[in-house]
């Protein structure tokens, strides 16, 4: 054999050993391919792991693989997860590495069509949480690492945070909003995720709120109707960045636009009693596919599919109830099309008040009396011994909002006077009044006893009627009521009234016997009228003074 041929054969033999040696070393653990380092020598390598110099040179022309997890990278504890690594068709073997481990986490032969491998975790635990990368072996050598995949485990014992939008989940198109993620659990960081094709995430350190809870504020915007804006958030401790709480309830932003606003309707009055059922109807002459209802100060945005009672009209009913104090507030509704994330302009607001809180009953009286002629001035007086900031006057069957007046204190009563000048028959009806506190403007006291106001045409009065100038009910000992007041006057035209002048009458109370001789409970039939006469003896009944 010539010297030249011998040299060529030796060179070929040494190159063959250099190619085969990595496979032999990988089969026994891969110590020749991965060695501990203080910092990764490649930007996509995991800390603590780096490629050997021979393989790195071979991997320069190989595309890096793709790594993902199904059903996702955030998995509840105890649930299964599958990690996939995909490379080119010539891939012969796939390897999965976990951050912090000096040896491969797992190795798999590719599945058909021989370009990806499956790594299964049947039961997710904290042990499996971490950052992963994969690489593949081809005839040209080992590829570089994939981009990192962070696998997170959710722990059920961690309380889920809450997520809200400030100032409201209803945002005008191109507007901005702040999402507030918070919890009473001492999480060090919060993660906000946006649902959708890209599944974007943001992480912020927690801040202490004056209330004692921790929170993070995520500015979002400009918000456009090009896609849906649905978010959830999580909390975790700084020492365990891949161990998260459960997700918050999802929050969807409603992007309102400029299309024609619907109308919000109801057949009920503005004041609701606890236990009632409230039905709101969102109605439009635009053929919307769906409607949404919003309540000021809350995060809920219930949606209903639209019904079409006739061509060109659309509507949806929102059933609320049984009514409680939480239903008091201001409502609006929006219309939307199924193929767009943009909603209509908001309807005009509709206010609802809930009675019974606080459990106080004011009184309502009228001057000069419950029967008047057109053109007269009538004053309705609402009073309470319990402090109220505002009094409201409601007319039964009226769709208009109640009249509101700030309370005045005239010892020992808190009161408000509602004056109606030049009354007409249209103002006749049944009235009630309520009290409220400024801290809860949508919560009202119990209603006063009803007061019937009769307004007759001028010169055509109804039957004689009397009422005390003032009266009120006050709870006394044993649950009984006292009736207090001042003398009233009943206008009565007749023979006993010379020259058509009203005869003075004294309004007295005929007491009903109460239990155990206690104060008599108030009852409308307890009132009686007696003419005051200078010739006869004064009535033995207790006169109201």
TrEMBL record:
CDD domains found in the cross-reference section: IgC2_D1_LILR_KIR_like
Membrane topology value: Single-pass membrane protein
Pfam families found in the cross-reference section: ig (PF00047), Ig_2 (PF13895)
Record protein name field: Ig-like domain-containing protein
Species annotation: Marmota monax (Woodchuck)
UniProt domain Immunoglobulin: residue ranges: 70-154, 166-256, 267-355, 367-456
Sequence ranges of Pro residues compositional bias: 512-522
Cell compartments where the protein resides: Cell membrane
